Amino acid sequence: MAKQAKVLNSTEIRRVLDYVATRKHALRNRALVLMMFNTGMRVSEVASLRIKDVVDGEGNIKNEIRLLAENTKTNEARAVFVNEKLRKELQQYAKVYANADPNNKFFYSQKRDSDGFSSSTLCQHFHYLYKRVGLDGASSHSSRRTFITTLANKGISVRVIMGLSGHKALSSVQCYIDCNSELMRNAVEGLAMV
Fold first, then answer.
1. Which residues are in the Tyr recombinase domain (predicted)?
2. Is the pLDDT reported for residue 2 higher than 60?
């Protein structure tokens, strides 16, 4: 069985954000990292986002991003919910796109003649980002595993997690959840036998 991508804790995510703050394209990279960790979207889904998918006609970040069926692994459209903190972060980044064509990709790549990141180039982007930060075992899939594991740690129903992650099978979601000390401690703490 292939090794699972590392689940990052809040300190490790902070290290990633601190690193991107010191680099070129800091605003974009911060928005990318936070989008990945706060939505649990697949890399291919994030790479497919257009400005019009994320930003409304008045220039505000939408509370809900609608993923088209052709942009999801399951070929089924779904909604991705944007929490308030992420919405504010994305609003800062969206200023880069004031008056831009709404059909442009939401996350630009360094190559000015490109149409933004592809799934492959975004995977590579995260691979090198985590390597530079020194997070062994982390990959573009780490954010999705972290998102799902965090929800499980908070006691969120697996059915809700399936809906948020776009999984159709319970067994698929179970593979993402990192069974850790926190999860087991929370389970025992919630159990009062006598």
1. 3-189
2. no
Is the Cα dihedral 105, 53, 160, 83 positive or negative?
A: positive
Confidence grade of residue 36 (pLDDT, cut at 50, 70, 90): very high
Nearest residue to 35 (alpha-carbon basis) of 51, 49, 46: 46
- Note whether 54 and 61 are within 8 A (CB): yes
Query: How many Å apart are CA 59 and CA 99, to the nearest integer?
Result: 9
Burial grade of 73 (CB within 10 A; 0-12, 13-18, 19 or more): exposed
- Cβ(13)–Cβ(30) below 8 Å: no
Question: How many whole angstroms separate alpha carbon 109 and alpha carbon 111?
Answer: 5
Q: Cα–Cα distance between 116 and 32 in angstroms, integer?
A: 12
**How far is 118 from 44, CA to CA, in rounded Å?**
7
Q: Which residue has the tokens 């796109």?
A: 97
What is the value of pTM for the model shown? 0.83
